[in-house]
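Okay, is this right?
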Amino acid sequence: MNTLTHAHAAPVRRASPYAVEMRLELVRLLRTPAFALPMFLLPVALYALFAFAVAGEMTARDPDAARFMFAGFSQLAVTMSAVFATCPSLALEREQGLLTLKRAQPAPPGAWLLAKIVAGVVCGLLAYLPLLLLTAAGGQTQLSPAQLAAMSAVLVAGAIPFCALGLMVGSLASGSAAPAYANLLYLPGMYLSGLFFPLPASLHFQAPFWPQFHLNQLVFAAGGVAKFRWISVEMAFAVLLGFTVLCSGVTLWRLRRRG
């Protein structure tokens, strides 16, 4: 009887460090106004300004324009939260020696790293939900609930490559420099991938070099929006997978050096 009890209790004990790390990492982020307020308020404010106030007449007449703006600003909400939920915290913990302390604790070695990824995805979801509610209430995109659900699933899953990007920068840069380097790598891709406005023909050649472009293609494919699709789903998925593996590999290599 005792043997069976211990056998059933062991998986719970093994899982608890992961759950504790995830909860603490998420609570820490949500209790940091310098992170939470910009990440959760800026995307929905920009979306409401441009999609409803500035270009409201255009998006009301043209559902494709409304879908284009919804996809772009939704991706901003999800990916920006993912990058900045992971990058600065990892860089500061490295700099302050907290990773050395974590290695000495009797906890699974990957629990804190998994917690940062999960927290980044959850923060991306929380930043995205106001945009989803605003879009569903406005009805300008003329997307069905099934289409919105499919696009939402891809957007939330698409936070993972950008968590990997944030972790890579956080593992390489100092605590004070990490946000600046993250901006240098992340922000140009938001504009040069054509998320917010159609690119001129002279810039089309460079758009596939940015992971934001490939996530956008997957979002449009999930929603059945054919007008803004330029490459196959398989190609977009392969590029994002390769990008995630590359960033994760650099992160693990750097963290193993313990420097």
About this structure: Residues 3-12 have pLDDT under 50 and may be disordered. The chain has eleven helices and no strands.
